[in-house]
TrEMBL record:
<dbReference type="InterPro" id="IPR010982">
    <property type="entry name" value="Lambda_DNA-bd_dom_sf"/>
</dbReference>
<protein>
    <submittedName>
        <fullName>Helix-turn-helix transcriptional regulator</fullName>
    </submittedName>
</protein>
<keyword id="KW-0238">DNA-binding</keyword>
<dbReference type="InterPro" id="IPR001387">
    <property type="entry name" value="Cro/C1-type_HTH"/>
</dbReference>
<dbReference type="Pfam" id="PF01381">
    <property type="entry name" value="HTH_3"/>
</dbReference>
<feature type="domain" description="HTH cro/C1-type">
    <location>
        <begin position="12"/>
        <end position="67"/>
    </location>
</feature>
């Protein structure tokens, strides 16, 4: 039986596209993480810390709820 996806969904990929197609590497550099971590978040395989979530929202100039949604 497979592992259930985390109950947190995100719009990181969509927000990157609307931010002049920001790359995963660009976002990673701006928030102090690796590109692989951004990939894992976008694929729903990793949920960021609260601090990282706020940093991501800040990069895009949106509220944290515009980036992450709880599916619990």
């Amino acid at each position: 039986m497979g592992k259930a996806p985390p109950p947190i969904r995100n719009r990181i990929r969509e927000l990157r596209f609307h931010a002049q197609e920001m790359t995963q590497a660009d976002l990673a550099a701006r928030i102090g993480m690796t590109r692989q971590t951004i990939v894992a978040m976008e694929q729903g395989k990793y949920s960021p810390s609260l601090e990282a979530a706020f940093r991501i929202a800040q990069v895009f100039g949106v509220e944290i709820g515009e980036v992450f949604q709880w599916e619990g």
